[in-house]
């Protein structure tokens, strides 16, 4: 399997500085990052490590769930996955991820609610990004449309 690369160029202090995250492997974009916007409710055109983790998690989960549905005898027509990644103070100092909520809504042929729920839970445990984030509580809200 290939290695994927992203690069960040940062100038200045944490509170007054800024950076740009480049998705180097795909070359699909470069995105602004700042600590003040990371900590603010309104991102105002900048991204954050948490948003990038949410993007990675939701897309990885979608692929994993799609495969598990197929292995269970179903056919995924559409899957809508949202990953909400929360950050907060770490009692040991600094910040830490405090939780991830995966919300999944799907249109699936050939699986009932129970079969879909089982596949959704297996995908939560088995997707590579979930495995990488085992130190963070991941909750799941999965339902068929």
Largest sheet at a glance? Answer: 3 strands, antiparallel
In spatial order, strands of the major sheet run: 1-2-3
Taken together, the total number of domains comes to 2
Would you tell me the overall average pLDDT?
A: 97
Tally of alpha and pi helices:
4
Tell me what portion of residues adopts beta-strand conformation. 35-45%
Structural class: alpha+beta
CATH fourth-tier homologous superfamily of the largest domain: K homology (KH) domain
Question: What is the rounded distance between the termini?
Answer: 34 Å
Topology-level CATH name of the largest domain: GMP Synthetase, Chain A, domain 3
Coarse morphology? elongated
CATH-level-2 architecture of the largest domain: 2-Layer Sandwich
What integer value in Å does the Rg equal?
17 Å
Helix content: 25-40%
What is the level 1 CATH name of the largest domain? Answer: Alpha Beta
Topology, number of strands:
6
Low-pLDDT residue intervals, each spanning 5 or more residues:
none
